[in-house]
Structures are given as structure tokens and as C-alpha cells.
Amino acid sequence: MKPASPRVVLITGASSGIGKACAEYLQGLGYRVYGTSRRAAALPPEPGPGLRLIAMDVTSEESVRRAVELVLAREGRIDVVVNNAGWGIAGSVEDTSIAEAQEQLDANFFGVLRVCQAVLPTLRRQGSGCIVNISSMGGLVSIPFQGLYSASKFAVEGMTESLRMELRPLGIRVAMIEPGDFRTGFTAERRMAAAAAQGPYHKALCTAVEVMEKDEQGGATPEAIAWRLEKIIEARDPKLRHLVGPLAQRFAVGVLRKLLPQRWFERMIAGYYGIA
Ligand SMILES: NC(=O)c1ccc[n+]([C@@H]2O[C@H](COP(=O)([O-])OP(=O)(O)OC[C@H]3O[C@@H](n4cnc5c(N)ncnc54)[C@H](OP(=O)(O)O)[C@@H]3O)[C@@H](O)[C@H]2O)c1
């Protein structure tokens, strides 16, 4: 459904993958979309019909503030915020340094927090708005050698549950999309914990990451997420969690996780990633 007057959407991490697909899809439906990238130089001088890509590094409060101010100066409002920017680290819990873990959480969790804090005064003043956080199936279920990535997404899940209750009385809707594996730049951008190359888990890590990469690169392109995002934005009262991805993954995370005893579920997951 096309909005009556174009709504203003801010999507972090819109230079690639899920963010890009969502930005282009909503732009095509008539929303006024501002996407962000660390590499975007600046906003074009005059608003054009194309996607507006503006600079934002979600690990910098100053950069987030500047980007939000830029959208507000141009549009005077923000109706939808999609916290999508992120990346993943692979490595055993033992081999991942504290600095690496902090970097992961700084982007995937504190990035979401920074953007929420920057836009909320505006959304509260408006008495309306919608925040959609892109979590992951890895935010509900952890898999071997993704412990710190999952920690960042579990943190997003926890914060989003609170945020939703805090904002409901103010007329602001909050939801999450939990994607399974999709073919995006995520695989190429994956970082390995530095110590993992020499570590005791090296062989098992390589086996597990090979499965992850195969599933990601063999996955669908992320249009299904863009489609779901639009349904969430348009819903008066969207549900909190939206699993999107291959049927087998939705079944494992949405159904088996709740039905099977934890030990069986763990064995199934570990076996799938070749470390049982
Ligand atoms: N692909 C999957 O299978 C999958 C599954 C579950 C969840 N997810 C989640 O989906 C989100 C998008 O990932 P994707 O798969 O679309 O990966 P992608 O193709 O690599 O895109 C990641 C986007 O995030 C941006 N980004 C990364 N670090 C940033 C930072 N510090 N500040 C600002 N922007 C940053 C990148 O922009 P620049 O590099 O241009 O700044 C890029 O636009 C992530 O949160 C990821 O965890 C992905």
C-alpha cells in the first residue's frame, strides 16, 4: 500500500545487502528513503528522485548525530528507522580477544543504541514512528564459533523487548526482523578472530565457517526481507519478532528450539556445523 504522503525512512547500512534491498524497495514504493554508509561522501545538494545515501558510522555518536540532523534539516521528520548496519566475527569464544568482542558489540549493539537515542527525541515529539531492528536468527539461537556475533544480537533482542514496551504508550512501534541466511556482502565482510588461525579450534572453526558460507552464499537475495519490512511499517500493531529465511531454518529456530530438549537441539546444531 502506498502511503498518502511519503514517509521518511532512515536505514543504516544501505550500501549493500539487506539494507540496500530494503532501501530500494521502499524507495520504489514512494517512501522518502535515506540510507547510510560509512563510505558515503555527503548528501547530494538537491533532493533527487534516487536513493539518498548519507554518511554514518554507527560506532561514532557524533557521526550518528550528524546524519540524523541532516535528515531532519531536509525533511523535518523521521517516520521509520531501520537499524540494519552490522557485520559478523567468527572464532571460538576462547580465541576472540576482548578488543575484538568490543568491536563487534560496538557496531551491532551499541550502534543500534546510538541510533535509537539519536532519533527518539524526534519520534517522541511527533508522537509517532516505527523502529525496526535487524537482528538475526543468531539472536535467538547461537551456533558454534559465532558466540560474539550472537552475543551482539542477543543484546539487540533484549534491548528491543524493553524499548517496545517503553515506546508503545508514546505511539511509537517497535519490531525486529530475524533473518536466516541470505546472500549479501556479509560473507565477504566476515572477520576472523586473529588468534583463531593458530588456535586449538582451528580445524573445527574452518569446518563450521565453510557450512555458514555455503548457506549464506547459496541463500536467496534479500528481497523477502524488504517485503516483510514494508508489511511491518504498514501494520498498526506489528508483532515483535519476524523470522525471515529458508523454511528449514525458520522451522529449526521457530519450532524445534521450543519443542526439543536443549541437549537434543544443541546436538542437532553442532552436528549440522560438523563439530558433533
Ligand atoms: N546476510 C545474512 O545472512 C544475515 C543474516 C542475519 C542477520 N543479518 C544482519 O543483517 C544486517 C545487514 O547485513 P547484510 O547481510 O546486508 O551485510 P552486508 O551486505 O555486508 O551489509 C552491511 C551493511 O552495514 C554497513 N555497516 C557495517 N558496519 C558499519 C558501521 N560501523 N557503521 C555503519 N554502517 C556499517 C555496511 O555499510 P558500509 O560498509 O558502506 O559502511 C553495509 O551497508 C546485519 O546487521 C547482519 O548482522 C544478515
Biggest sheet, in brief?
7 strands, parallel
Return the structural class: alpha/beta
* Beginning-to-end CA distance, first to last residue: 47 Å
Q: Beta-strand level of the residues, as a percent range?
A: 5-15%
Family: Belongs to the short-chain dehydrogenases/reductases (SDR) family.
Pfam families: adh_short (PF00106)
Domain Ketoreductase: 7-180
Protein name: Short-chain dehydrogenase/reductase
Can you describe what's shown?
The chain has a seven-stranded parallel sheet, sandwiched between helices. The protein has helices at 17-29, 61-75, 98-126, 147-167, 186-189, 202-217, 223-234, 247-259, 262-272, and strands spanning 8-11, 32-37, 52-55, 80-83, 89-90, 129-134, 172-179, 191-192, 241-244. The protein has nine helices and nine strands. It has a single domain (8-272), classed as 3-Layer(aba) Sandwich (Rossmann fold). By secondary structure, the protein is an alpha/beta fold. The model has no long low-confidence stretch (mean pLDDT 95). The protein binds NADP nicotinamide-adenine-dinucleotide phosphate. NADP nicotinamide-adenine-dinucleotide phosphate is lined by residues 12-19, 37-39, 56-59, 84-88, 107, 134, 136, 179, 181-182, 184-186, 189, 216.
Briefly characterize the structure.
With 276 residues, the protein is an alpha/beta fold. The protein contains nine helices and nine strands.
